[in-house]
């Protein structure tokens, strides 16, 4: 992953930490272990989603390598620039045929204004997810990561996220596998700051923050 842009912490972050430490015994111990770090956004919706497509089903290191080659094909990573690229050049950068199709569909959705980027700040989470999953190659998990890392929505609970599942298993269930209903039960005390609690659960597994 390339360097994260330095941006202010979300306005709700300190309130969220106080809420979680008061309501949850695990968070009370976990949050103080990770001072001076918080959720950060890259600040570009198209790039964030394009990176998520490039990174599907490959390692973080491999994804960065492919992204760097893909990015070098354009002066600036924009929908219009991607639509000008030749398929052969995109394939030579290391992208599969399917990922090329996904990236072109993503660029078309943005250039044709089939996604209402300017309205997203005023839309609820599920409405945004519905727009995003209409794009080929973007499922619910990717849409939820976008809500957390780009729009910085405070109360997203990504039930299908393996890191969240593993972290809750270790922190709350002594390593036993957890069901979706058990995750929801744990998260009952997190609301309305499930995104923040999820971020700290990820930190319990990997102290280095990841950005998308």
TrEMBL record:
<dbReference type="InterPro" id="IPR011257">
    <property type="entry name" value="DNA_glycosylase"/>
</dbReference>
<dbReference type="Pfam" id="PF00730">
    <property type="entry name" value="HhH-GPD"/>
</dbReference>
<protein>
    <recommendedName>
        <fullName>DNA-3-methyladenine glycosylase II</fullName>
        <ecNumber>3.2.2.21</ecNumber>
    </recommendedName>
</protein>
<dbReference type="InterPro" id="IPR003265">
    <property type="entry name" value="HhH-GPD_domain"/>
</dbReference>
<dbReference type="GO" id="GO:0032131">
    <property type="term" value="F:alkylated DNA binding"/>
</dbReference>
<keyword id="KW-0227">DNA damage</keyword>
<dbReference type="GO" id="GO:0043916">
    <property type="term" value="F:DNA-7-methylguanine glycosylase activity"/>
</dbReference>
<dbReference type="GO" id="GO:0032993">
    <property type="term" value="C:protein-DNA complex"/>
</dbReference>
<dbReference type="InterPro" id="IPR051912">
    <property type="entry name" value="Alkylbase_DNA_Glycosylase/TA"/>
</dbReference>
<dbReference type="GO" id="GO:0008725">
    <property type="term" value="F:DNA-3-methyladenine glycosylase activity"/>
</dbReference>
<dbReference type="GO" id="GO:0006307">
    <property type="term" value="P:DNA alkylation repair"/>
</dbReference>
<comment type="similarity">
    <text>Belongs to the alkylbase DNA glycosidase AlkA family.</text>
</comment>
<keyword id="KW-0234">DNA repair</keyword>
<feature type="domain" description="HhH-GPD">
    <location>
        <begin position="54"/>
        <end position="206"/>
    </location>
</feature>
<dbReference type="GO" id="GO:0006285">
    <property type="term" value="P:base-excision repair, AP site formation"/>
</dbReference>
<dbReference type="GO" id="GO:0005737">
    <property type="term" value="C:cytoplasm"/>
</dbReference>
């Amino acid at each position: 992953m390339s360097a994260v842009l330095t941006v202010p912490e979300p306005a709700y972050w300190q309130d969220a930490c106080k809420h979680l430490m008061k309501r949850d015994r695990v968070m009370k111990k976990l949050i103080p272990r990770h001072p001076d770090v918080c959720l950060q956004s890259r600040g570009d919706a198209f790039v964030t989603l394009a990176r998520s497509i490039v990174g599907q089903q490959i390692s973080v290191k491999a994804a960065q390598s492919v992204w760097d080659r893909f990015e070098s094909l354009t002066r600036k990573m924009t929908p219009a620039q991607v639509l000008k690229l030749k398929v052969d050049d995109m394939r030579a950068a290391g992208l599969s045929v399917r990922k090329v199709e996904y990236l072109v569909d993503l660029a078309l959705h943005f250039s044709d204004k089939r996604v209402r980027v300017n309205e997203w700040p005023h839309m609820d989470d599920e409405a945004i997810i519905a727009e995003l999953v209409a794009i080929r190659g973007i499922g619910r998990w990717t849409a939820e990561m976008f809500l957390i890392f780009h729009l910085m929505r405070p109360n997203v609970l990504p039930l299908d996220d393996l890191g969240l599942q593993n972290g809750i298993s270790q922190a709350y269930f002594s390593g036993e596998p957890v069901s979706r209903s058990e995750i929801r039960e744990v998260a009952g005390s997190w609301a309305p700051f499930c995104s923040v609690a999820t971020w700290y659960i990820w930190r319990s597994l990997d102290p280095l923050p990841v950005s998308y």
